[in-house]
Write a structure and sequence with these properties.
Helices cover about 60% and strands about 0% of the residues. It has three helices and no strands.
């Protein structure tokens, strides 16, 4: 509230708006726009994986092939954290890794 009151002596003129603050605001806006594009890219990847895998949710009698697998603690943590970071299920993430390996 004190910042909005003008100083009668002019001592606070241009004190709170420096070029450094302007640059910081511009950098924050740039980072936010980059994060938005990264999120949009991640969402697009998730939709592509879903198209390839197909969804069986709510469809009676349709099932995908399954394998019960054991993972080391390190690999399990990686799959869990990375799949959450990319906004997809662990199954979709592992399938994506296998697809990338198979294509190479």
């Amino acid at each position: 509230m004190a910042l909005k009151k003008p100083s009668s002596f002019g001592a606070a003129a241009d004190l709170f708006t420096s070029t450094q603050q302007v640059h910081e605001v511009q950098e924050e806006e740039t980072l936010k726009s980059q994060n938005r594009s990264n999120v949009a890219h991640d969402v697009q990847q998730v939709h592509e994986v879903q198209k390839v895998l197909g969804t069986t949710q709510g469809k009676k009698g349709q099932k995908l092939k399954r394998i019960n697998m054991a993972f080391s603690d390190i690999n399990h943590d990686y799959i869990t954290k990375e799949s959450r970071r990319q906004g997809m299920s662990g199954t979709a993430f592992v399938n994506m890794i296998i697809d990338q390996y198979r294509i190479k």
